[in-house]
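user: can you give me the structure for this one chain? tokens are fine.
assistant: on it. calling the predictor now.
[tool input]
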Amino acid sequence: MTDIAARPVSRGSLLRNAGAAGAGVMLGGGLLSAATARAAGGVTKGDIDILIAAEIAEALAVTTYTNIITRAPFFKRLALDDQGYLKAARQEEMSHYALEASVTGKPSPFTTFYYPHGMFKHAQTTLNTLVTLEDAFIAAYLVGVRNFSNSDLRVTAARIMGIESDHRTLARVVGPGVAKRDGGPIELITGAQGVAESVDPPNNNGYERTLKWTNIGQAVAALTPFVDKAAAAKAGFDTDDAFHFHPFTPHLPNPLGAFFGFGG
């Protein structure tokens, strides 16, 4: 996997269609209405840009977890607790998407995604890509912490970033549990920085990695090969098989971990 932090920045390739994406937001149970969400300190155009990029990322995340669960041969041979992590992550990513869409009033402008060759077939490729994406999501939400215009949105970004960090660590937990017939145990996983890292320990960060991103355009550039067919082909991804985002109403694993409001 190429070091995504080194790719050139091009915000327009993802955000230029956002304004025409339309309404029709699907909300998960208990989430705020768009009007209420906007009242939580107000949002600026810069906030919307970040939130639209986050929606694209969350739609990609939901699609990734969905297809790991339904298509990846190694999934059904994982321990039940590892399967449970992947299933819970899918619900959590959908909840993030629904919350962000409730603020923007628009769905993700991109709902078709492309992946590297071997994705959902080869466990090493799947886990490398999953950790790469979670690395990117963490760094993107840290951009939100840095650049959102009000404290409500900054704290919400930090709350979501913490869950993405859980997902990164748990994805690394899965590696050693991959069955031998699926190429396991997997002891090295390559994430966003292009370096194969030992999964021992899976929680190998003392501080979250920013990837040196300071604006949302850098996150957008990193996601471009996953959403744009021409960029996917240039990156060496498989463009013969496209995967589609299918929204649903999320059911979080524990009500104590639900979103109760921008106040906390």
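assistant: here you go. The chain has one domain: 43-246. The longest helix spans residues 45-71.
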